[in-house]
UniProtKB/TrEMBL annotation:
Transmembrane segments: none annotated. This is NADPH:adrenodoxin oxidoreductase, mitochondrial. It comes from Stephania japonica. Keywords: Electron transport, FAD, Flavoprotein, Mitochondrion, NADP, Oxidoreductase, Transit peptide, Transport. It is an enzyme of class 1 (oxidoreductase). It holds the Pfam family Pyr_redox_2. Its EC number is 1.18.1.6.
Amino acid sequence: MNMMKITTLGIVGGSKWILRSFSSLSSQPLRVCVVGSGPAGFYSAEKLLKSLQVAEVDIVDRLPTPFGLVRSGVAPDHPETKLLLLELMLPENSEQIVVNQFSRVASNERCSFFGNVRLGTSISLSELRQLYHVVLLAYGAESDRVLGIPGEDLDGIHSAREFVWWYNGHPDYCNLDPDLKSSDTAVILGQGNVALDVARILLRSTTDLAKTDIADHALRSLQESSIRKVYLVGRRGPVQAAFTAKELREILGLKDVYIHIQEADLLKSPADEEELKSSRIQKRVYELLSKAASSSDSHPSPGQRELHFVFFQRPEMFLHSERSGGKVTGVCCEKTILKANGESGKQYAIGTGEFEDLECGLVLKSIGYKSIPVDGLPFDPHKGVVPNIRGRVLGNAPTNPAMIANGLYVVGWLKRGPTGIIATNLYCAEETVGSILEDLDKGLLTPTAPKPGREGLVQLLDSKNVRFLSFDGWEKIDAKEKSMGSLKNKPREKLTKWEELLKTASLPVID
């Protein structure tokens, strides 16, 4: 017998949401644990709290700080993007003041934050599932795809994710120390928005960067940098470039940066013309690249930094010499041509057997993030996602692999792969929460059965001597960072070391 009362709440984010409340005969709260405090996790938590009056939501994150990629992924010279990410998630309060969405969600008496808790180490997935009716995994993608070509382990080669986390003050990468001094040239493999972010940080004036929340160690390194040339290398052509017009326009507008694009690379084939007809975004990107090529000077001025767009090249191997001491000295690239895929209509790159070496002292691979599995979680290593249907995790029973794992859900990059824009996480969370509500209506989540939830989590973490951060701990970190930043005319001066973060939050540092 379904003991749920249903009333219409209204329209949220363009979709109709239902406010659900249980009758007194079914008063057990639905206990939910969201693992990951980035945008996908918080969108989901917010929608669950709005849609279910009896939901108790605990947000768990391995870091002492919330926000995920809002804090560690968005470029420091894009403060408006960070603000937009937060403002998209929150309405105005009664005083018409926009408040921080995390504060609003976390201050809800039905929501708690547990920082410094690592899934798979501090607590297992099976333990979480015993404690909660619903476990929603939103921990994103914290690893990288690999090229699998010779020399990939040479010094001086990093993933773009590592570099981004370094300049954004992520505590795991504060000691990365990329070598920006021994060469004047960097090669970035990939032509997406992350690649443009990395190139822009390398080329932008450090006077401008000093006004942002860039990590202090990164600012000092960039101020001493010898990098003057950056090559953005892509397997395909300008028609297929993956960056957006907004990001491209920004980097093309950097002061005192010479832009170089081969005119021959801009020649379009009939297949290219068809691609442009079907994509307004690709058409605009191509137009911006064409305009930049035609308006650029033939040679850089003395002292100018340089950005070279290199199309139709794919990395074949990384180079080094006996004198380099195991450090990368260049990238050997194979020239490519495009061949149409009859099924999809898209074009893919194939090698021509012609090779060219790009000399450099720094390589940043921007070829894609990758999620990592945890024990007890079905995982597709090829796609780098958890197999799911509309956020419902598929079981891994060998006799019935399509069986749904009741009570276990995914959202964000772990669900769909590391793709999409800000709004994509909204729709992704909306879909997964919709699946949770449907399963609740069908009686699949058995909320009438008691689960220890928050109290059980606290007891288990205490028994394992895991020192977790509450929302109050984050507020102490937040206040100190803003205070230190105000002394330097910055939005904040990030604490970048685990010891500093835990000490500021008043947690004992345990070796």
